[in-house]
Amino acid sequence: MGKVIDADANGDFVEASLKGFMENGFISFIKRYKKLRLFDENLDTIEVEDSDGYEVIYEGAYNNETEEFNGEWEIRYDLMPLSTEKTIEEFCDGTWWMKKLKD
Q1: Is residue 69 a part of any domain in this protein?
Q2: 94: helix, coil or strand?
Q3: Within a domain: 103
């Protein structure tokens, strides 16, 4: 397990744990953030203090032609418990790419 420091949309730096693997050109990793971060009505990032955090799950493949990884990411987190048996869950997904910078 490792750690990563990301810059969010507002330029704030956020630390997350990082765990994953790579095998035969396939890559899978999970970034776990300690606190849930949302956007307010002004698109400013807010941190939800009483939250359990969230995970971003990444899966993708290496492209030999472009020498980069690309794939899909997914975020799921509990937004609001409705009862002891039901919870509203938020889901977001998208695409990502990663390439080594030239020395």
Answers
A1: yes
A2: strand
A3: no
